[in-house]
């Protein structure tokens, strides 16, 4: 195979795989993300619900897509469609709005 063509194939494959990755835009909750009102267990449950419930119908949105006000509106609109309870919505909201840089 032509070296230039090989390089193009490798570059294209690398770009494709990078864009297919869904985990890079989601953080794994850690103690730094917790507070007096948000436990690590809450955050892990929120992430699991987000990936499961939201990911059933469409690409799961990254936490950085909206600020707290934006997530409030989005979750309000999606709650009946996703058939999630108020408690589940609250856990998802906590996860989406708790990311902190280390």
Number of strands: 0
Oligomer state of the chains in this structure: single chain
Q: N- to C-terminal separation?
A: 45 Å
Structural class: mainly alpha
Mean pLDDT: 83
Q: What overall form do the CA principal axes indicate?
A: globular
CA radius of gyration:
18 Å
Uncertain segments of ≥5 residues (pLDDT<50)? Answer: 17-23
For the sheet with most strands, the description reads: none
Continuous helix count: 4
Spell the H/E element sequence. Answer: HHHH
Number of domains: 1
Helix content: 55-70%
Strand content: under 5%
Explain how this protein is built.
Mean pLDDT is 83; it is low at 17-23. The protein is mainly α. It has helices spanning 3-20, 40-53, 68-82, 86-97.
